Amino acid sequence: MAWREAPFYTERERAALAWTEAVTLVSVDHVPDAVYAAVRKQFTDEELVYLTLAIIAINGWNRLAISFRTVPG
User: Is the pTM higher than 0.85?
Assistant: First the structure.
């Protein structure tokens, strides 16, 4: 992903992006231990729950939109 090469993200943002990628692709690779360890350093339990719920919600919306051939706009 392009975010990995971009110098603009903090360690916290990078942890959130890696977590988002891992949760989104959980059926392919599960969540790597290194990603879990990195996100646990940056987020409290409560923050991680909210972040994960947001990821799940957005992934769900995307799956609905793609499945029903929704046209953007």
Answer: yes
